[in-house]
Amino acid sequence: MSLVVSHLKKSYGKKVVVEDLSFTMERPGVYALLGTNGAGKTTSIRMMLNMLSRDGGEVLWNGKPLDTATCNVGYLAEERGLYPKYELMDQLLYFAALRGVKGAEAERRIRDWARRLEVEEYLYPNAPKPNHEAALMGQKRRTPALGGVKKQKPLKADQFSKGNQQKIQLIAALISDPELLILDEPLSGLDPVNTDLFKSIIREEIDRGKYLIMSSHQMATVEEFCTDITILDRSKTVLQGHLNDIKKSRGRVNLSLKTEQDITGYLTALGVELLSRKENEYRLRVSGEQQANELLSALIAGGVTIVTFDLREPSLHEIFVETVGRDDNETA
Amino acid sequence: MKLREALAGTGQVFTFTLRQFLRNRANNITLAIMVLAVLASMPVLTYVQGGEAQTEDLPGAAVTHVALDNQTDLPLSAAALAQDSYWRGVTLTDGPAAGADAVATVTATDGEYHITLTGEAGEEDMDYLRWCVVSLVEEARIAAAGVTNQQLDVLWSDYTVVLPGLTDEAPLPEDVYIESDDDFMDGFWVQYGYAIAVMMLCLMSASYVIRAVIEEKGSKLIELLLLSVEPLALLMGKIFAAMVYVLGLLALMIAGWAGSLVITATIFSSGSVKNIIDAIRSVLPAVQTDPAHLLLYAVVLVVSLLLGYLTMSFIGGLSGACCTSMEEAGSASSTVTLITMVGYLAACVVSAIPGSGVAHFSALCPVLSMFCAPVQYVQGNVGLWVLLVSWVIQAALVAGLAWLSARVYADLIIYRGSRVKWKQLFSMARSRKEAAR
Description:
- The structure holds 2 protein chains of 2 kinds.
- Chain A has 3 domains: about 140 residues, Rossmann fold, CATH 3.40.50.300; about 60 residues, no CATH class; about 60 residues, ACT-like. Chain A, domain 2 (Alpha-Beta Plaits, 2-Layer Sandwich).
- In chain A, strands 6-7-8-3-9-10 form a 6-stranded mixed β-sheet, with helices on both faces.
- Chain A is about 35% helix and about 25% strand.
- In chain A, strand 7, helix 7 and strand 8 form a beta-alpha-beta unit.
- The relative contact order of chain A is 0.14.
- Chain A is built from 12 helices and 14 strands.
- Chain B is mostly helical.
- A 4-stranded mixed β-sheet of chain B has the order 2-1-3-4, with helices on one face.
- In chain B, helix 6 runs parallel beside helix 10.
- Chains A and B meet through helix 2 and helix 6 of A and helix 2, helix 6, helix 7 and helix 14 of B.
């Protein structure tokens, strides 16, 4: 299986919003679509999924134009919502039916995902709780048939927290067990616990050999999962390729250093760029491994006590900022 | 893109939307209020117009025993008088009953029928009995001659005679029929009633479609839905759901109205209900025709209402998609309201203007034809082919709106920002490149 996006173009009047976007996914994994706000990421995704008309280009899945007939696609949109006044279960069954999953199978999958995403108690408010759970709550288990427990009305979306609504949307995206999963800002607005929960789901999908396209401003998260990236800036592709190759090409130029003494004299003498300093903790940029070694030798020779010496490749965050030429406010 | 692909998923959208309409508490409360209002309408109207409550004071006979002595071959029976509430509580017997307060004797000599009333009954009872027996004899004579109601309609139908040189001032020859004010008013009421029905259907259904579209747009769910459903299917599902819901409402209203008649009959004298039904029959010529015509009129009604409904629903759907929030629903509805009201008022005006040219214009002009074409056809002002041409024009308008929706609906429902004007909408449709999808 492969996904080929070639020469996607889109403009509104004279304003070009996506200019010649191309990339390929030859194997399962995560492809990151990155960019500043308004760079054209969401527009590109919408064009890939035929939600927006294209001015040019094509998207192929196994050599055929990508659509729901040729590929089972799941999509978690950046702009997320639910029908606020409708019951959640109704909505999930509707989304499942639209994806071709109906009846008992739809209910089974919803139940599975509800359990995994820890929203079962909201979707099934009247389901009997396991005995041990009731015991933990310090209550004797009572069923509605025995009286005393008032039957709860099914919840509507506007009674749900934002994080739980996001879980429902993720269920909707995964309900058809998609081959290709597109996640647009999947972790935005989640608390750390739910972030970890979502990450574990994403990791499982990767392990199951799924193709994922992820768009996010949280570079650390993207770096955790993705193998290939495209960075868009003002509608243009400014950087593209395998993340490790990109990092290697930049070399090990980031040096984090912590010492017992002030070393600014050494830095000036060797021409090392000081990025930031907090007391005797330094973030430095060196020209390469040779300059780093020269600095280390000079510090040892000068009797400086070194606490940490960490030479590494640039992070995705640093690559991103360097590439687009300015620090985006929302990058993490 | 093939139409079948464009409409895939319509069924799911329809089912979901209809279910939500039915579960909506506000909808259910509105429905209950409307049904109650309809149930109360006829009794209240009858009371206001002077219908008296059914009490012991209702007009009735003072006598206790009336006999009908039929000495002819006609099938006459005193039991037929029991259908008239005037004779309630009165013993009705056949033959020359000796103890009867009033006896009506019917005889025949040389082909002529004679009715003789004898007895001690008062003048009012005697007079009413005479009137009743004359009616019975007339009906029996006509039935005995083998004349059907349809033949009677033909015999008693109106006709006109056009004489050259006849001026307004010239005296009219005897028996020349001139359309009376009553006939004109009958036509007006038919048009007026139908226009109100179309107006209600259009406004109610469009408002449901607009609300459903804006609600969906506001929910920010649209991208998830567009992954699985084409935009046209998304809109059509809502349009069909609103149609079924509104037609269900109308059916309930009709049932409520029938119930209202029953309540009226229970509370008031049966004469009041009869008066209402007579009034309805007098303004609905279709009721008085044969089943074949009734079926034809039903088909005309259904097709015409469907075309009108689809036209206004597509306009409503597009108007709704032009808005971003529920606060703008009012301005979206105003487009539909404006078009509907213009059509409705024009239809009322047209019905007051006689002439074949006006009838044809009103039956063919888009929007106006929604209100006028079926009425003009039923009233015989335009032929069947004019009605068919009118339907073709209306269907073309619906197809045009569907085409427009298919081109711009996806972009509109994703769009966020100030309300899109209709001018912008058309330019969107023009600029959209077909190769894109």
